[in-house]
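The methods section describes the discrete structure representation at length, but only in general terms. An entry of this sort, consisting of the sequence and the corresponding backbone structure tokens, reads as follows.
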Amino acid sequence: MLEKKVVIDKIEVLEDGQIQIRQATKIMEDGKEISKSYHRWVLAPGQNVDDQIQKVKDIANATWTEEVISAYQEKINKESL
């Protein structure tokens, strides 16, 4: 029997406060993994996280202080000049 499992298997916080998320999609046959693929995305400090899983929301709330968000915005502003 084939089964598809989708899980968030990695969440990382970068030095500048960005959160990287990796989602794994596993195809299982009779309990054994026969295929795996990944989808990744990055959230910037202060970005809306309403559509994320609770664990990502909790990490964002814990790490995205006003100072982190301001420093990230300053960094982005300098890079766009």
In short: The chain has a mean pLDDT of 96. The first strand starts at residue 2 and ends at 13.
